[in-house]
Each structure stands twice: as C-alpha cells, then as structure tokens.
Amino acid sequence: MVQQKYVGVIGAAECGVDVVALAEEVGKVVAKSGSVLVCGGRSGVMEAAAKGARDAGGIAIGILPGDDPRSGNSYINFGIATGMGDARNVIIARTCDVLVAVTGSYGTLSEIGLAMKMGKPVIGLKTWRCIDYCGQPAALHAAEDVADVEEILNKLLNNNE
Q1: Which residues pair with 101 in a beta bridge?
Q2: pTM of the complete model
Q3: What is the spatial distance between Cα 30 and Cα 25, in angstroms, rounded to a whole number?
Q4: CA–CA distance from 132 to each of 101, 136, 137, 140 (Å)?
Q5: Which residues are bridge partners to 79 per DSSP?
Q6: Rounded to an integer, what distance in angstroms lies between the CA atom of residue 99 and that of residue 103?
Q7: Per-residue b/e over 120-130, b at no fewer than 16 CB within 10 Å?
Q8: What pLDDT shows up at residue 77?
Q9: Backbone angles phi, psi at 3, to 5 degrees
Q10: H-type alpha helices, the chain
Q11: Quick one: average pLDDT of 56-68?
C-alpha cells in the first residue's frame, strides 16, 4: 500500500490578489505531487491553495477552528471541526509531512514554530525567516518562487519515503 503524503499550506487569512495567485499555484503543486493538501480551511491563502489543489484534481482537507465541519471554504473536500480556534494549528502541524508557508502573520509563525519543533520541514515563500537557534539547524527552506517550492517539496517528499 502506498502511504499518502500530507502537505500543509499555511498563510495569511487576508491577502491581496498577488498572494492569492501564489497560493493557488502552490495548491496546484501540492496536488501535482500526489499529496493531500491540509490547511486551516478558511479564507485567503487557505482558500486559494485549496482551490488550486481542487482545480488540479487533488484533495483539500480543512482543519477548522469552530464546531461546524461545513464552515470551511467551498474548495475543501473534507472539513474537520476542532472547536479549538487557533489551537488547531497544532493539529495542522502534526498531520503534515511538510508545510508550505505563504506570507502570513503570527498564526502562520506559530504553525512554522510548531512544525519545526516537531521536526517537520517547512518551505517558506514570502514569509517569516528563521535563523540557526542554539545550534539547531533551521528547518525552514526559503523559496524564491513557486518553481522553487515545487523543487524543494519534491525533494523533501522523496526523502521522506
């Protein structure tokens, strides 16, 4: 049996059309890799990435902050109601093999930190930068564009098999 890979796409809930376009392309890259896209299921980067994944024939799971599994954006295939608000970020980080951060604010930073603490690689596109902290190797792979995201993601997914 082939083990399914899960790729989180995290980022700003409110963003401009340029970031929406980037996130949609990242969603397509995730689907093209054969992975399931996992996100917070709401607006902005999450919605755009889910749309990109769906448009490319992929699956998008939304880990939702509230109690209603149907409260996610219209591109989510499966909504998971957590009733946990922002604490759902732990579930997103734990579920994914790799995370891709597209812009984002403090919620995104928390997901990056949680993923790195769990030893999960994170690809950053126009987002927070991490430094080598206390001799720990930084697990944030900086990408300049969507092509970089695709290249880094495929390398990380193939090394995790």
Answers
A1: 10, 124
A2: 0.94
A3: 9
A4: 18, 6, 6, 10
A5: 62
A6: 13
A7: bbbbbbbbbeb
A8: 98
A9: -80, 125
A10: 17-32, 45-55, 88-95, 106-117, 146-159
A11: 98
Indicate if the pLDDT at residue 139 is higher than 80: no
121's CB contacts (< 8 A; 6+ apart) are: 98, 99, 115, 139, 141, 156
Task: Look up residue 74 and give its amino acid.
Answer: S
Average of per-residue pLDDT values in the chain? 92
List the structure tokens of 161.
């098999």
- Cα of first residue to Cα of last residue in the chain, in angstroms, is 12
DSSP 32-76: HTTPEEEE-SSSTHHHHHHHHHHHTT--EEEEESSS-TT-S-TT-
